[in-house]
Structures are given as structure tokens and as C-alpha cells.
């Protein structure tokens, strides 16, 4: 099964639908399977007195509340209908994360294929239950969470009868330092809950995705941007077009490297065998009628003769023709 690659547009459209569509074009050009946005009304998730998170202060060094910042990143609900239509035209799956019941209901009305839940909602049990009750497949991001908190979140959603859950390992920091990624926690969640896992990658490079895929990640999400120089909380930790195209290629090459797990020679190796492996050769000149002894046999290249492992079958047999030293012995020679 191919790794499902999600281009996370998030709020990197900066409240402009034209930029949002450019991000869709970018995701398509880079070969992503889906593009994800965030659908919200700022008041659904953020109070008037909430401060910006530390990474938001660092990435957007403007004196403003988190609510003021988020309001500038809103897109009207009806524009997501337009974006979804554009995604369908471009042949890429549209996904979005709701921040409240209004945005959730709107996304359900669009018949999105799944609901992606952000890490901030892991302990928001009422909202988790409402999401699960839609019956939609769910991917839950788990940044800032303990294993116990993830377990409780799953219990809440499973209680609705919706069992179609996947977990996304995540570190909620933009960008995430390599030493804070802790990919083995992704494996821990897969083993603990017996459900598919993936990675929401906030690092600056490719190594996290490559390693995650090697460890069994079934899906990978990465923020994309038109330019890291744009104003906004997530641009600096996002990938522009050239890098994201390489990112997707790295993941696809990792899939090829992993293969299907069956140990067998490749088509090219089968040809190389003839020159690379050894056959049974005559250790000396031998006349027709000679009864073969072990001392008369050597094991050398090429590998297009009788395999060395079958030498015991030759011993005691009579030659049907003359052989020169180093000639490959064939079955028709005995």
C-alpha cells in the first residue's frame, strides 16, 4: 500500500482564496494525494484574552492576541466549497480540519472523505464525540499528548460506534527540532492501539518522513507554502514547491527501497547470477570415459553450469566427452 501524502495548506493561504488555489496547484504538481486546510470561525476555538503560542510569537512578532491573528487567517465557509470544487477539477482529495461544531457541520455538508482532528482537541471530549458521531473516518493528531490522553480520546470516539480511526504522531512546534521528533512514539501507539499510524511532520528536512515511512507510517502530512517569507505563523516551518517536490520523491523512493519484503533475486540479479555465481568446473584436463573424483572438480565463475551444491551427484559418474581444465561441466557431459 502506498503512503498517503497530505499537503498541509492549513492557514498558509493568509485568508486569500487565490493563494489557497495556488497551494492546491502546488500540491498537485508535487504529487501529493490530498491537500488539507483548516476550516473555522476564529471565535469557535479562541477566547479574546488568549495569548499567541510561543512559536506564533516567534514567527509573527506582532503585538496582537491569538484571536486577532487567527481572524486574519479565516476564509468564509462558502469559499471552501469553491476550493473543494477546484480540488476535484485538479484531481486531488480535499480535506480540512474543523475548529468547532459550526465548521464541523459545514465540512460534513461538503461530504468530505474524512475528518482530520488537530492536536489541540485531544482532551476536548465533547467535540471528539461530536466528530465521531458523524460516522466519518477520522485521523487524530496527537501533538502535546501522553499515551494515556490518546487512549482516552480514542475511547470517547469509539464509544459512538465509529471505529474508523487513525493516529498521527506529531510534535506541536513549528519548526520541530530533530531531537524532539521521537518517532518511536509513533510505533508505540501502533502497538498499543492496533490502528494505522502516520506522521505530521513539522521538521525542516526530509529525514523525519523517510524514517517514519521506514518505521511503518501509512500517511505523512507536511505544511506547504508559496514562500517562507510570507507573514503568518506556519510559513517558516513549511516547504515551498521545490523542496516539497523533493520531499514527495524521497517518500516514494523510500517505499521502493522497502519493497514487498519477499526475499528473492531481482530480474537484473537473475542475469548477473550467470557471471557472479559459481559453477562446477574441471580442475584438470579429463578424457572421455573418466570416472569423476572430487579432486577433479573446482568451483569457479561463470555460474551457468551445475551448481556447486550438487557436486556429490557428479562424483562417480563417467564423462561422455573430453574436458579441458576450467571448462564448465554440464549435465549432458556425464
TrEMBL record:
One of its GO terms (biological process) is carbohydrate biosynthetic process. InterPro entries: AFP_Neu5c_C_sf (IPR036732), Aldolase_TIM (IPR013785), NeuB/NeuA (IPR020007), PseI-like (IPR051690), PseI/NeuA/B-like_N (IPR013132), SAF (IPR013974), SAF_AFP_Neu5Ac (IPR006190), SAF_PseI/NeuA/NeuB (IPR057736). GO terms for molecular function: N-acylneuraminate-9-phosphate synthase activity. It comes from the Bacteria. Residues 279-334 form the AFP-like domain. SUPFAM superfamilies: AFP III-like domain (SSF51269), Aldolase (SSF51569). Pfam families: NeuB, SAF. PROSITE patterns: AFP_LIKE. PANTHER family: N-ACETYLNEURAMINATE SYNTHASE (PTHR42966), SIALIC ACID SYNTHASE (PTHR42966:SF1). This is N-acetylneuraminate synthase. It comes from Clostridium acidisoli DSM 12555.
Amino acid at each position: 500500500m502506498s503512503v498517503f501524502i497530505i499537503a498541509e495548506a492549513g492557514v498558509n493561504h493568509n485568508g486569500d482564496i487565490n493563494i489557497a488555489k495556488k497551494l492546491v496547484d502546488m500540491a498537485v504538481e508535487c504529487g501529493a494525494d490530498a491537500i488539507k486546510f483548516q476550516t473555522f470561525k476564529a471565535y469557535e476555538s479562541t477566547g479574546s484574552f488568549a495569548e499567541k503560542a510561543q512559536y506564533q510569537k516567534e514567527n509573527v512578532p506582532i503585538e496582537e492576541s491569538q484571536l486577532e491573528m487567527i481572524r486574519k487567517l479565516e476564509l468564509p465557509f462558502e469559499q471552501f466549497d469553491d476550493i473543494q470544487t477546484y480540488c476535484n477539477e485538479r484531481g486531488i482529495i480535499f480535506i480540512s480540519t474543523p475548529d468547532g461544531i459550526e465548521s464541523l457541520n459545514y465540512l460534513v455538508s461538503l461530504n468530505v472523505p474524512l475528518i482530520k482532528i488537530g492536536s489541540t482537541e485531544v482532551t476536548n471530549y465533547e467535540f471528539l464525540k461530536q466528530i465521531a458521531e458523524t460516522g466519518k473516518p477520522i485521523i487524530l493528531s496527537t501533538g502535546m499528548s501522553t499515551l494515556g490522553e490518546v487512549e482516552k480520546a480514542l475511547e470517547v470516539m469509539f464509544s459512538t460506534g465509529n471505529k474508523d480511526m487513525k493516529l498521527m504522531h506529531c510534535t506541536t512546534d513549528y519548526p520541530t527540532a530533530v531531537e524532539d521528533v521521537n518517532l518511536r512514539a509513533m510505533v508505540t501507539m501502533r502497538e498499543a492501539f492496533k490502528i494505522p499510524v502516520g506522521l505530521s511532520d513539522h521538521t525542516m528536512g526530509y529525514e523525519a518522513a523517510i524514517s517514519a515511512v521506514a518505521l511503518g507510517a501509512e500517511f505523512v502530512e507536511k505544511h506547504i507554502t508559496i514562500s517562507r517569507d510570507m507573514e503568518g505563523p506556519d510559513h517558516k516551518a513549511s516547504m515551498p514547491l521545490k523542496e516539497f517536490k523533493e520531499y514527495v520523491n524521497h517518500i516514494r523512493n523510500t517505499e521502493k527501497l522497502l519493497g514487498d519484503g519477499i526475499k528473492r533475486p531481482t530480474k537484473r540479479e537473475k542475469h548477473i547470477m550467470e557471471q557472479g555465481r559459481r559453477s562446477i568446473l574441471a580442475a584438470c584436463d579429463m578424457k572421455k570415459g573418466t570416472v569423476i573424483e572430487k579432486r577433479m572438480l573446482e568451483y569457479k565463475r561463470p555460474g551457468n553450469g551445475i551448481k556447486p551444491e550438487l557436486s556429490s551427484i557428479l562424483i562417480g559418474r563417467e564423462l561422455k566427452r573430453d574436458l579441458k581444465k576450467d571448462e564448465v561441466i554440464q549435465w549432458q557431459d556425464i
